Amino acid sequence: MSDSHYYQSLAKSMMFTIILVSIAPLVLIVLIAGHQYGAAYEEKVTAHLRELVLKHDQSVDYYLEEKVEEIRVLAEVFNVNRLRDPRELEALHDALVRGHGNDFVDLGLVNSEGIQEAYAGPYRLQGVDYSEAEWFRMARERTVYVSDVGPGLRGVPHFTIALRIKEAGRDWFLRTTLDFIAFNKLVEDIRIGQTGLAYIINKKAEFQTTPNRDMTGEVSFLQRFVKGMDSNGERVWGRAAITTETNPATGKEMIFVTSPIKNGDWLMVFQQDTDDAYAALNRTRNLALVVLLLGTLAITIMAYLMSRRMARKVEKADSAKEIMNEQVIEAGKLASVGELAAGIAHEINNPVAIMVEEAGWIQDLLEEGLKVDDNEREVQRALNQIRTQGTRCKGITHKLLSFARKTDPTVKFFCLNELVREIVELSEQRAKYANVIIETSLADTIAQVQASPSEMQQVFLNLVNNAIDAMDPGGGNLDIMTRLDGDDVAISFADTGCGIPEANLSRIFDPFFTTKPVGQGTGLGLSIIYGIINRMDGTIAVQSTVDVGTTFTIRLPAVKEAEGGACEIRLNKEDTA
Amino acid sequence: MPATILLVDDEQGFVDTMAKRLGKRGLKVFTAYSGHEGLDVLSSNGSIDVVILDVKMPGMDGNETLARIKIDHPLVEVIMLTGHATVESAIEGMKSGAFDYMMKPCDLEELLGKVGEAYDKKETHETKILEARARHIVLRRGD
């Protein structure tokens, strides 16, 4: 359970790492490049619009100026008397039409009272009274006046240019009407994208050109726009000023490029939906987002699959390692069993030799006859001895069998003291011949530990064997001590052997590290012990002084009484049984 | 004249029974239960001809005892007695002057045969020594 959880979390953390590492630069690049590109593109678009408007406001101004100059030339060349002559005026108008097409619709001379005295053009406007007309009043003040576009008397959109002429103490006004269509064309052609269009408004926000779509909904907005901008007029009334406003008619954000013309009487406005102006930018941004999204998706899927595969591989490798570990432990165990068997063989040979001798003795006595002396009692004694020795053999083989069983890694509660006694009993014979005295000082009350008894048995046997080997020529003492140390149960094996040189101390737990001659030690014992103790959440420490002795101390977490119960109870039961 | 034997083994039951059986066959048998004890018995009884010595004993083991015997009593012959696991050390013993080795548990007749051979060898040695001494005395006389 916890294992699969471990591999799942491993896979998860791998997945998140991969995703983070792969997506972070992607997002960073998209953000940085997107921002830079957006800024550059916006700059380009606004520069382009500004250029466009600047060019056109100039051309409109030129157009108007040119027409004004035309009239001014006429007024200077011809005196009022000639202009008053309808035929002369007619000829002049014809000449203008020839030179400028239909730009000049008509031509008229108005006296100081506002009465048109002479007229040449398609309408019958001879004698019309203009005294109330806006242009007439303005022209009196300014000498030259270009009117706003309006239907005027004829009911067709047009605008008027009027020029005041002073002659013989009287004011005369030469006026001409300009064709709206020709003028309209100047701005009508400025069209960009789907929504970009240009028009001219006066200060009352009345259209001076006809926008090519219905903009009645936007008039109120434009009025407010013009007035509002009047207050901080610099922005709107500066040349090619750019503002971004939300158009209430459509609810969309729009770019307005405004430029004053006709000395600030009119305002040329170019407007375009922001979306439309930045269409290419938006397309690029959307593309980038799609790429980012698809990339993220692909990375996530890949990360998921990869991390799952990796976790599975790790799991497989771990389980292979586990199997390997078991095999190594088994091998190490075989080695220690072999070592044990050598001792056991001799141990078993002794009782067998006694039995053989006793049997031979019985045979000797039988040849002599049972009745002689107390031969019968002697035979009884010999038979008893055979039985005793047989029982001894049985004990030895049982001890050996208890160890040679397959290692059972099952973890259970048990008492270390029992195990120590078992091991001491098992090693006693070997210790005896090696002149080693094993002493145990086992704590009376000691908590149980949670471990695999058969693995611990191997650990202890290995340590005891090592200790006996360390004291090989000459023998010594091996003290085995168990005690409760805080939350741990500590067991130490202190020998008075040759000790371990400091240089080797850090390597003794390495696999295959051995100081024994080739063929005598596998170098696996301590590394197996280390693995076993580690797996049981314990620690193993070693202290050693050369020629004084070595102490191995194992600490295993003690089991709380509530869970496992104290050891003493079980021991006492055994004692009384 | 039958040989005088010393049995050295830490297994008391083995030593006692073996001693009885050998005694029944007309041999004079001394017993000891450790290497030290064996050396003591050997020192206090000059008549011992052959020592049957267990290799594996606590305290002073067979090989060590053998070495001491060979120093103190060079003429005494030693037969090593061994379990299978210690055949190597028995052979070591042979190299350092033991007469032969036998596996435990051993056949009594075989052991008796070996003891006889060992006894004969010792007798031969002793005879040679006696002869040599006699020659020495004769030469000294200078006749």
Automatic annotation (TrEMBL), chain A:
MF (Gene Ontology): kinase activity
Residues passing through the membrane, by range: 12-34, 287-306
Signal peptide: none
Listed EC numbers: 2.7.13.3
Keyword Calcium: no
Matching InterPro entries: dCache_1, HATPase_C_sf, HATPase_dom, His_kinase_dom, HisK_dim/P_dom, HisK_dim/P_sf, Sig_transdc_His_kin-like_C
Top EC group: transferase
Topology term for the membrane: Multi-pass membrane protein
Keywords assigned: ATP-binding, Cell membrane, Kinase, Membrane, Nucleotide-binding, Phosphoprotein, Transferase, Transmembrane, Transmembrane helix, Two-component regulatory system
Protein's UniProt keywords contain Transferase: yes
Catalytic activity: ATP + protein L-histidine = ADP + protein N-phospho-L-histidine
Localization terms from the record: Cell membrane
Domain Histidine kinase: 343-560
The protein's name: histidine kinase
Organism (species): Pseudodesulfovibrio sediminis
UniProtKB/TrEMBL annotation, chain B:
Keywords assigned by UniProt, alphabetized: Phosphoprotein, Two-component regulatory system
Domain of life per record: Bacteria
4-aspartylphosphate: residues carrying this PTM: D54
One Pfam family per UniProt: Response_reg
Domain Response regulatory: 4-119
PROSITE patterns, sorted: RESPONSE_REGULATORY
UniProt keyword Cytoplasm, yes or no: no
Keyword Oxidoreductase assigned: no
PANTHER family on file: PROTEIN PILG, STRESS RESPONSE REGULATOR PROTEIN 1
Protein name: Response regulator
Organism: Pseudodesulfovibrio sediminis
Higher taxonomy: Bacteria, Pseudomonadati, Thermodesulfobacteriota, Desulfovibrionia, Desulfovibrionales
